[in-house]
Structure formats: C-alpha cells, structure tokens
Design a protein that fits this description.
mainly beta, 22-stranded antiparallel barrel, about 650 residues, five-stranded mixed β-sheet
Length: about 650
C-alpha cells in the first residue's frame, strides 16, 4: 500500500495522461508507470491534482497556480481584479490556457483572466514549460512558450458511467462579504452516455481595509468599488460509442459585473466609478477514436463569443467612456497519432481559427484574422533515451472593414527535447530542451484607436532548458521524494512595448530585446505514517535575471518592470484520520515598477502565509467536508502592482456535501 499512501500525501505527484479515465490495472503496474511518467518528461512539467487542491489553502485558481515553479502572478488587487500569470517572465501573452483540451483565447488582449475559472470545478491542473503531453493535442497547443491545461470536474464526472446520480453542493462565506454557492450533478444516462452540470454564483462587496504610506504619512483606508457579481455554468456530455470512440461536448457560460478600483495615490483615494461587464460563452466538441491498433485520430471544434463592456462615467472626456467589444471565434482541428513500433510515436495536427473583433470605438478597424497552425512531430523511446521533436508552421492573414490591415505572417518554429536515464534502477534523469515560439500582436496592439500599429512584428522567443531530476519510491520513513533542478535561458526578440510619439500620443512598437537567465529548484516529499499522522512537503525556489539588452535602450542592462529576482513557495500538509491541516507560504522578492532600476521605482519584497483546516466525514452515506481558511494570516500589507493594495488578513468557511 506504499503507493496509495504516497499518492494521498504527495502534493504534486505526476499522473499519466489518461489518469482521469477509469482504467483497471494492478497496483504494481500503476506504481511503475507513475515513476516513469514523471521521470520521462524531457521538458519541465508540474501537476496539481484534485486532492492537492482540496487540502491546500487556495481559494482561487490563481492562488493554486502561484505555488508552481517560475510562476509570477499579476494581481491588480480586489476581489474581482484581473489575475494573469507569467511563466519564466515571458508575460501572460506567452502562456496558453486550455480547458478540457481546447484553448481559451482572447485575441483582443492576449491575456486570460484566471479569475473567470472556479477552483471548485477543477479536477486537475497541468503546467508544461514547453509542449503538451497528449499525442492527440491540437496544433495550437504547441504555439505558446508554456501551456496551462485545466481539466474540469464536470467533464471528469460525465465520463464516469460506473455510478448512479451524483450530487455535490458547496456554500462558502468569507471576509469582505464574500458569498459563493455551487451545485453540480452528474448522471449516467446509459453505459455509453453521461451528463454533468455545474453552476456557481459568487458575490462580494470587496471592501477591505489597507494602510497607505507616503513617507511619514500613514492613512488607514478601505478599498472601494471592488465588488464582484459572477455566475458560471458548465454542462458536459460524454458519449462512448462503438470501437472505443468517445465524443465530449462542453457548454460554458460566464457572466460577471465588477467594479474596478483606481490606483491608491495621494490626492486620488477611492473615487473610481469604473465598471466592467464580461459575458463569455462557448461550445466545444472533441471526438477521439482509434482508426486501427496503432493509429489514433482526434477532431476538435469550438464556437465562442466574448463580450466586454467598460464604463467610466467620470473620465476626462465629454460624457465619460462607455466602450463595448465583441469577439467571436470559430475553430476546427484534426490530429493523428501513429505508433509504427513500440519505440516510436508520430503525430500530426492542423488547426484553422477565425477571429473577429467589433467595438464601439470611433473609426474602429473591425479586424478579421484567419490562422492556420500545422504541426508534425515524433517521440522516440529507446532504452534510457527519450527524444521529442516537432515543427510547427503558423500562417496568419488579416482583413479589416476600415483602414489598413496587418500584413500576412508565416513562421516556422521547431522544438527539440532530449532526456537520458543513466541508471536503470535509480530514478535519476538528465534532460535538455530547445524551443522556439512567437506570439502574434493582439488586436489591441494592431488596431486600438490612435495607439495601434499595423506594422508590428510578432514577438519571437527562444527557450533553452537544462535539467536534472531524481525521484524515489521506498518503504522507509520517506515514502516518496523528488528533487528537480532546471536552469533556463529565454531570449525575446521584437518585444512589443508602448512608447510615446509626442507629449500626448503613444504607439505600440517592436523595440525591445530581453534576455532571461535563471534556475528553478523543486522539492517534494511524503513521509510514512506515524501514529496515523502523515506529512507531505513541497517547495520551490526561482532565481532569475530578466534584462533589457536592447543596445539603444536607456535602460540597457536593467531588470524589466515587475519581474522579481527571487520568488519561492512552500506547502506542508499534515493529515490525521479525517483531518488535514495545511500551511501555504509564498515569497516574492524585490522588483521595480519601471525599467529604470532606481530606488524610486523599487517595490519591496513580501511574504504571505495561508492556513487551512479540513474535516471530511461521512454521515448516512453522504460525504460532508468542512473547511476553514485563514489567508494572509500575518496581515502583510503588500502590492503586486504599484498603488493597487492587496487584501490583508481574511477568512473563509466552506461546507460541501456530496451524494
């Protein structure tokens, strides 16, 4: 039973790609496969499983993801503030986010707000610092520098046909008038058909106290216009047809209204009346089927619409601002995976994407973008060696209703990853990888009124990684232990920045050359039970320099804005019978708010600690979980973004019932 104990305690123990499906295998086989799965990854890869999320003090997806190595969270404060992640300091635009195997996109801004997703309906989280792990992944999954993959509980439950009706509900109350309620249900209509539905409503006033300091002046204030009202709905339909064919369809709706607090600066305290409405909807379908014993095929389709309304009644323009944007996307993908021999897997995929954006801005261009992504790849497993290689071709063309359109872009980007296991009976592995990627300028970069520049070139990124990892499963005091060390170097060419054209007008330009050099260290361990107490520990540390090396730059050799030299995270879980206690700690070192590395731009480091106590009990056949969280327990007064204060000490209590 060492494996079962290890899996319960490990915070980030990797799973095989099909771990969410019901597969009946022997325990010994699972143990060997899990060890190999983590060791064989030629690129850095981290996972959070549902049990890790439940035991942690994380209340949001952003809270959970910031515990992973090299992840920097950008948070503009407030309950409903924009939350994006940057992996290895490449920016949020270089991290793709996909839900249940298909990418979530925002062609207008290029950034995905993690606040839109509910942690309550997440089954697992996977962060790949390179290529996707699934051989049938769509081609677009290969296009970004890193990939954050989310698997929803509703999809996982819709695939379970071995149980009757399953109901789950949760109510959560917290500081700042936080109220959250969710209801989920899954039912197998037949052995071949399953349906799952998940709904959630969240509200909060977002009024939290903070301390404003300006030299010797100290003012106690309360955050205003930071309320949130959001509703999420997901429905999943899974059909298992003849010849092991599976069809999965997801319907997703998200509707929110929130206040946007302004920067807390002297003379401008809490007078914001800005409002933001977001309405997202999409339906996506995936079909996966074996064409023969060695050939697999996947077909994926999606239709999406994103509506955004921004209002500022007191803006310095006549009548204020009331802008509305509507994005639409149509997506179709086909992929193949062929295994001609046990040591070789070949894959190919092609995607077609159509994106449009309409806005109420004066003389807006109304662009349409047609993109094609095509990838071919190979995976070789021979003895102690593992080799992954692929070549992605990206072809983009655009048209506009008004004004000039951006030129066509055609780019080839290769990836090569190699790993070696020098000892057959020791879980030691060496790995190296090289990847090229790029990101197209967003519609805002290209067409935003008086700021956009249609002649922008794509940002190009080169990533180099050298790593070593060791994993151990044993019957001793330490049942599971792992250490991973990765040194990385990223080079970004033609980075897009806004620069002033004159005293009043700005323009987007390709002017920056950025080079990042750093190291990640990841430690994990799970200890053997002692008097029914089991302890698991996970920790990571990143040190990096991310420098502007543009020859003509006035900030040449300086650390780029909002990039800490150091960040770290740790999590400790103590489990005793039906109780578990977790402590989650995160640290962000000093950084600068602008490219000039001077004291006036310095942001101090901060540390945040969260504690969670969880009790799980079964009463009359019903599973009841009570969880109490204390976040920022030491009441740290800090800012992720200058002049946007974060909440101090706060509490949440949740009760969930499953049947």
């Amino acid at each position: 039973m060492a494996l079962a104990l290890c899996l319960q305690a490990s915070v980030l123990l990797a799973q095989p790609a099909d771990s969410l499906r019901s597969v009946e295998v022997k325990e010994l086989e699972i143990k060997a496969k899990r060890l190999l799965r983590a060791a064989e990854s030629a690129v850095p890869l981290e996972r959070l499983l549902r049990q890790d999320l439940e035991r942690s003090a994380a209340n949001t997806l952003a809270d959970a993801v910031r515990q992973l190595p090299s992840v920097m969270l950008k948070d503009y404060g407030g309950i409903g503030g924009l939350k994006t992640i940057s992996v290895r300091s490449l920016g949020a635009e270089h991290t793709a986010v996909q839900l249940d195997g298909i990418k979530i996109s925002d062609t207008q801004t290029g950034q995905i707000d993690l606040g839109k997703f509910s942690l309550e309906n997440i089954q697992s989280i996977e962060l790949s610092y390179g290529n996707p792990t699934d051989d049938l992944s769509p081609a677009r999954a290969y296009s970004s520098a890193s990939l954050l993959s989310l698997i929803s509980r509703s999809q996982s439950e819709s695939e379970s046909s071995d149980r009757p009706l399953h109901l789950r509900t949760m109510v959560q109350l917290g500081s700042f008038d936080w109220v959250s309620a969710s209801l989920s249900a899954s039912v197998p209509v037949s052995k071949a058909l399953g349906v799952a539905v998940s709904m959630e409503r969240q509200t909060a006033s977002g009024r939290y106290p903070y301390t404003f300091r300006d030299g010797a002046q100290v003012i106690n204030l309360q955050r205003q216009n930071s309320d949130l009202h959001a509703t999420r709905f997901e429905a999943d339909l899974t059909a298992r047809l003849a010849n092991r064919m599976s069809v999965r369809t997801k319907v997703y709706l998200y509707d929110s209204e929130r206040g946007l607090p302004n920067a807390a600066i002297l003379g401008n305290f809490e007078n914001s009346q800005q409002r933001l409405w977001v309405r997202d909807a999409f339906v996506q379908t995936s079909l996966e089927t074996p064409l023969s014993a060695d050939l697999q095929m996947g077909v994926y389709a999606k239709a999406a619409q994103n509506y955004l309304r921004f209002q500022d009644p007191i803006a310095l323009t006549t009548g204020g601002i009331d802008d509305r944007y509507t994005q639409r996307e149509g997506y179709l993908s086909a992929s193949l995976s062929y295994k001609p021999m046990p040591e070789l897997t070949l894959n190919a995929a092609t995607d077609f994407v159509l994106n449009t954006l309409d806005a109420t801005l004066w003389q807006f261009a109304i662009p349409t973008r047609l993109s094609n992504y095509s990838v071919i790849g190979a995976k070789v497993r021979y003895g102690a060696w593992a080799l992954d290689a692929n070549l992605l071709g990206t072809f983009v063309s655009e048209t506009t209703v008004r004004n000039e359109a951006a030129p066509e872009r055609r780019v080839l980007t290769p990836t090569l990853a190699l790993s070696y296991k020098p000892f057959a009976d020791i879980g030691l592995r060496l790995r190296t990888s090289y990847k090229q990627s790029f990101r197209m300028p967003t519609f805002n970069d290209l067409y935003y009124t008086r700021v956009g520049n249609v002649n922008l070139r794509p940002e190009r990124v080169e990533q180099l990684n050298l790593g070593i990892g060791y994993e151990l499963l044993s019957e001793s005091i330490i049942e599971y232990a792992a250490v991973r060390l990765d040194a990385f170097r990223n080079r970004t060419v033609d980075k897009i920045l806004a620069i002033p054209r004159d005293a009043f007008n700005w323009s987007m330009q390709n002017i920056a050359l950025v080079e990042a050099t750093g190291v990640d260290v990841r430690l994990e361990s799970a200890f053997k039970k002692f008097y029914d107490v089991q302890i698991s520990v996970a920790a990571n540390y990143t040190y990096q320099t991310v420098l502007d090396i543009t020859p003509e730059s006035l900030t040449f050799g300086n650390q780029i804005a909002y990039t800490p030299f150091e960040n770290a995270a740790a999590m400790v879980v103590l489990a005793w019978k039906k109780w578990s206690l977790s402590w989650m700690w995160s640290f962000v070192g000093y950084r600068y708010q602008l490219g000039e590395n001077i004291m006036a731009n310095l942001l101090p480091p901060y540390m945040v600690s969260d504690i969670s106590l969880r009790l799980q009990e079964t009463l009359w056949g019903v599973d009841v979980v009570v969880k109490a969280d204390a976040n920022n327990v030491f009441n740290e007064q800090y800012e992720v973004i200058r002049s946007f204060p974060m909440p101090g000490r706060n509490f949440r209590l949740s009760v969930s019932v499953s049947y």
